[in-house]
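Key result, reporting period 2: structure in, sequence out.
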């Protein structure tokens, strides 16, 4: 559930499709998939059960105290501790590579990195910037992560030794146990990649830019007339689409889109289609439709085909997975040129990027693209096939895994005389890749 989870699960399935055995370790399991597993937490050891209970209580109290002063428009703040203790022993057993994903509230940094074998290759896919900050998931203009955090503006703190500095130090001690030759960071966007390279915590590691992958046989252009009829839209209606896991997330910028729509003079036949959980906002002057949260990729692909334009007015965006999905379906994208959105939109071929947070430019971009939707569609699909194929992503990860395994082999005296190039694929075939989310 949510963008990071969907992206992690797609990579997991993509690896399986290209022949790389993979299992996925998650905090909460919703899918009926035997390759997705839950952590094993022994109920026999009373000491571990008590430690987990105390840690959960302390973490809950700490995070409630931290988040209490946060404003409604601020993103979440997560510490480096969790109640998942006693379940990381043997985390690297029987696997070739461990690939972390979105771990806040799940992975307890000290116990996880203390249990990870020092010779086990580690890849960390960044779904936001939390792994290299003192607790925030999006930092806005703050550059504290390039130093040591502290005096955190998100916490309205003026103290150098605040919760962000303490969390930063916990992460620093955990990362100190990692060998830079055996660990790598993957950023889906150039923005996150550049930020990770500048960060104090992750700057010493290899940083690779690998965009998210999509099932292009699911997210593809379809019969638009049939899709519109199925969902009750008329052929002459001009549909503006906004998709977010949670509509009321300030960072996603729905309020900015509504302001832009209010300024459109020709509102006749204009429809705003919203997909996501949360409270439906009040929309004036035009028809609005709220589909709620859509978990089916097939249905979501039909929704993209309904739209004349997909708008992503995010204030900050790590990648913009929904924009990539729209592009794959042949739907042009309009958004602010922030974060990963700039990687997805090939202006002016597949959509338009406008100055961050210029409402007038956003409105004009929407009006322009609606009129020329068909002219963008072919280029959108071609770009998706070139950049966002699930097999492309899976093979890029496989190449990275093999390079880290080769580093491990070369550094081991027991393997100096073996043919590493031919042995590595066997290592991946015989073992599994574990993804933690």
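The corresponding designed sequence is given below.
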């Amino acid at each position: 559930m949510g963008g990071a989870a969907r992206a992690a699960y797609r990579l997991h399935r993509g690896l399986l499709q290209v022949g790389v055995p993979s299992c996925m370790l998650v905090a909460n399991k919703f899918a009926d998939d035997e390759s997705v597993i839950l952590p094993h937490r022994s109920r026999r050891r009373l000491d571990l059960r008590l430690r987990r209970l105390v840690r959960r209580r302390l973490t809950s109290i700490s995070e409630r105290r931290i988040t209490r002063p946060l404003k409604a428009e601020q993103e979440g703040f997560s510490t480096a501790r969790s109640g998942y203790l006693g379940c990381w022993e043997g985390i690297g057993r029987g696997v070739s590579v461990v690939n972390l994903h979105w771990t806040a509230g799940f992975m307890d940094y000290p116990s996880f990195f203390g249990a990870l074998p020092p010779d086990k290759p580690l890849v960390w896919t960044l779904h936001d910037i939390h792994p290299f900050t003192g607790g925030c998931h999006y930092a806005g203009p703050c550059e504290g992560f390039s130093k040591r955090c502290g005096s955190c503006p998100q916490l309205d703190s003026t103290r150098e030794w605040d919760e962000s500095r303490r969390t930063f130090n916990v992460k620093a001690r955990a990362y100190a146990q990692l060998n830079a030759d055996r660990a790598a960071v993957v950023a889906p966007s150039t923005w996150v990649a550049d930020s990770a390279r500048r960060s104090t915590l992750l700057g010493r590691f290899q940083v690779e830019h690998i965009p998210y992958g999509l099932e292009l046989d699911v997210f593809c252009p379809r019969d638009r007339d049939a899709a519109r009829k199925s969902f009750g839209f008329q052929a002459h209606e001009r549909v503006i689409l906004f998709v977010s896991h949670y509509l009321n997330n300030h960072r996603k910028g729905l309020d900015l889109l509504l302001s832009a729509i209010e300024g459109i003079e020709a509102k006749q036949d204009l429809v705003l289609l919203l997909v996501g959980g949360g409270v439906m906002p009040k929309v004036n002057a035009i028809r609005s439709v709220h589909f709620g949260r859509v978990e089916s990729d097939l249905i979501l692909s039909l929704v993209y085909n309904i739209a004349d334009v997909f708008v992503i007015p995010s204030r900050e965006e790590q990648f913009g997975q929904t924009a990539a999905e729209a592009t794959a379906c042949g739907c042009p994208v309009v958004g602010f040129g922030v974060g990963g959105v700039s990687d997805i939109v090939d202006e002016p071929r597949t959509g338009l990027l406008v100055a961050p947070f210029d409402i007038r430019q956003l409105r004009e971009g929407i009006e322009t693209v609606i009129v020329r939707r068909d002219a963008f569609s072919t280029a959108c699909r071609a770009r998706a096939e070139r950049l966002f194929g699930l097999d492309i992503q899976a093979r890029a990860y496989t190449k990275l895994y093999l390079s880290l395994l080769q580093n491990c082999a070369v550094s081991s005296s027991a393997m100096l005389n073996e043919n590493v190039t031919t042995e590595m694929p066997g290592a991946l075939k015989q073992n599994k890749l574990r993804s933690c989310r």
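The first strand starts at residue 22 and ends at 25. Residues 413-425 have pLDDT under 50 and may be disordered. This case is discussed further under Risks and Mitigation.
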